[in-house]
Predict the structure.
Amino acid sequence: MELKVTVTKCCYRKEESGWSIIATDKGTCKGIIHWEPGTGDLLILNGDYQKYQGIKEFSFTSALQDIPIDPKSQLELVCERTPKMGEAMKEKIWEIYGDDWRKLEMDKIPRMNPRLFTEFKMVLEKLEMNKLQSDSIAFLMSKGCSPKFAAAAWNLFEDKTIGKITADPFELTKIPHYGFKDVDNGVRQNFGIKNNDPRRIDAAIFYSIKMLGEGGGHTVVEWKDLLSTTQSYTGGLIGELIKQQIKSMVDDGTLHVFKETKRFCLGINFMRAEEIWNYFK
């Protein structure tokens, strides 16, 4: 079931997992939430009521920010959270600006002082960031990411999340503890990324170098190993397509090739090694 709540206090939160105990206007709620909710936050929780030591609690499996859609309701929420912002001032803002209330100018509203104006703008900024966070997490979940995966993406990319991941879903592989397979199995398909898409092949090559390096403790990999490992991760993709993409990555400096030995490494690793060599020689 879906439950809309207003947070009164985050009583406990386990940072590693996000498991939290939240006091709300609807009672105690327990579950995993991938950011720390603040007092006054509006949430939409999905779960069921349960009893713990005879006390009724709501156990939730997912949580999203509940931000009003229409402009007037959003203004009401911002005014409600801004200390000393009274009903008369809220009505005056709406009367003068209407849907454009975000363009508020301090000198247009009677008794609006600099401190109140600054607090109003800070509350508005937080509300807009909360909405963007909620929209971004919901967007990624609709594309096949788990709530935890989606929240981790927001933590890394913040307000650039939707644009960056839409342009290349394999940017998700930059998130700690997630890799190529997490994106390739059920996420990239929802972005229209086909098997032979250059973005997919690039990501598979990067992942192959990483996994081959971890196995042997090296940053340089053999050509035959790179080709076969990339093929295995891409479900037997035609070798010629992989070769073309590797050549493109060498041309733009993403990869470096040691032609005499037919070995490869990431361009950034080669540049770092070269800098160290030049420093000590």
Observations:
- The longest strand covers residues 2-13.
- Strands lie at 2-13, 19-24, 27-32, 42-52, 55-65, 221-222, 255-258, 263-266.
- The CA atoms of residues 275 and 281 lie 10 Å apart.
- DSSP finds ten helices and eight strands in the chain.
